[in-house]
Design brief:
The complex is a heterodimer of chains A (188) and B (243). Chain A is mainly α. Chain A contains 12 helices and no strands. Helix content of chain B is 18%, strand content 17%. With 243 residues, chain B is α+β, with helices and mostly antiparallel strands. The chains are: A mainly alpha (188), B alpha+beta (243).
């Protein structure tokens, strides 16, 4: 009891000193800044080797599947190779900064190190093919990429988000529900 | 009234002909390669911490020196219909797949209580006591379709569910039914004597169903009522070893 009183007294003494409040305040600010920047970095698009403008390309009538053909028939949609970009761009005056980065990669014969934006954890085995086969469009999951320059990630694309859609699709069909909510469908 | 669970998906099963098995361990090796199973090293193996989803059991009959070895018995997860491992898991990491009719281990749910392994009458489950993965060129040999398990995770045979899912997806993409023998797990694929046969038990004409109706068919610890999906064929063959 005596010990506890002593401890309380020491705490009160500490609270009277301004250094205590300065340290506490600084710590709180640092914590808030850390949390804030963490959340921000999760939702911000990752830095890309060049600022690819989706809006312009979709506006020119290029289909998503032209540059991401894997979505049609395999698990990964794929990111375009330098050769695919260069197929059109070698016939153009590449004046914009992003285009000049492309020219540099094409002249060096190197592949563009694109950074995937829509990534899933390692234990998720996502497959594009059945989703396209089920009649989904790209923008159902990826949002309005056609209005974006650099592709933006969609926050909280998690298992609940997947299952919401899967359950809705399988409504009333026991067999389909079993298939679409089976663990092994996405986790192996 | 039929059980609605029996009507969905496929019921996968395996038949292992012990009269054909030569105990060559090819299934063990193929399984390790397919499923990213780590080598634990001599010391941990001596502690009984070997990671093997399939093992080849060898028994002896009689007293030494008049021993007679029985046919080799590859033992893997029996993918029970009434699995003892499932109800004991506190976090639902050991669950029954209604679609594939197998037991699956959900690695990202598992917290490593090891209740399931203690309740498994076949000792088919193994536990990752350490992070065995080491940086090096061998990591390039990992199968990208299978999760690399980390420390503290229980794991077991999945009937190569990645191949099943892939086979089903391919068949659906091509708009056809799956053919018998289209999906082959790594152990059956590697077996040089074709002692391991895999296929659909819900299809009465599949090879695995026909073999299961063989008079030699037995199941491990049948009296426990676990309803295994793996059937063993033993005895009555001309392949007699040691008489």
């Amino acid at each position: 009891m005596l010990q506890r009183l002593k401890l309380l007294e020491r705490l009160q003494n500490l609270a009277r000193r301004p250094i205590f409040w300065i340290v506490t305040g600084l710590f709180t600010i640092l914590l808030a800044a850390g949390v804030g920047s963490g959340i921000r970095s999760m939702q911000a698009p990752p830095p890309q080797p060049l600022d690819f403008n989706h809006q312009v390309h979709v506006g020119l009538g290029i289909q998503c599947l032209y540059c991401h053909p894997g979505a049609w028939r395999q698990a990964a949609a794929g990111l375009p190779t330098t050769a695919k970009c260069w197929g059109c761009h070698q016939q153009m005056a590449n004046t914009k900064p992003a285009q000049q980065v492309l020219v540099a990669y094409a002249m060096a014969g190197e592949s563009i190190p694109w950074v995937p934006v829509f990534i899933q954890p390692d234990f998720v085995y996502f497959n594009h093919r059945p989703h396209i086969a089920a009649g989904l469009n790209c923008e159902n999951c990826h949002g309005e990429i056609s209005r974006q320059t650099v592709a933006q990630p969609i926050p909280r694309q998690n298992m609940g988000w997947c299952l919401d859609c899967h359950r809705g699709r399988a409504a009333g069909d026991e067999q389909m529900l079993a298939r679409l909510t089976d663990c092994a469908t996405c986790h192996r | 009234m039929s059980n609605p669970l029996e009507e969905v998906g496929h019921k996968w099963g395996m038949v292992i002909d012990q009269d054909l098995c030569t105990g060559c361990q090819a299934c063990v090796t193929a399984c390790a390669m397919e499923n990213n199973i780590a080598f634990v090293g001599e010391q941990d193996a001596a502690y009984g911490r070997s990671l093997q989803w399939i093992r080849v059991e060898r028994f002896w009959e009689g007293e030494f020196p008049e021993v007679k070895s029985t046919p080799f018995q590859p033992v893997l997860c029996q993918q029970c219909g009434q699995a003892p491992c499932e109800p004991v898991c506190p976090v639902y990491a050991s669950v029954h797949s209604e679609n594939q009719q197998i037991n699956i281990q959900v690695y990202n749910r598992c917290v490593g209580t090891r209740y399931c392994a203690n309740n498994c009458p076949y000792q088919a489950r193994v536990f990752n006591w350490r992070d065995y993965r080491e940086p090096g060129p061998l990591d390039n040999a990992l199968n990208p379709d299978v999760t690399v398990r980390r420390r503290g995770i229980m794991e077991k045979c999945t009937f190569c569910v990645q191949r099943i899912v892939q086979g089903e997806d391919t068949a659906r993409a091509e708009g056809r039914q799956m053919a018998d023998g289209e999906v082959v797990p790594a152990c059956a694929q590697a077996c040089p004597t074709e002692a391991i046969v895999f296929g659909r038990l819900d299809d009465p004409d599949s090879l695995v169903s026909r073999l299961k109706r063989d008079g030699r068919a037995v199941q491990l610890l049948e009296e426990l009522g676990t309803q295994p999906s793996v059937t063993y064929l033993k005895g009555g063959s001309s392949y007699g070893r040691n008489g």
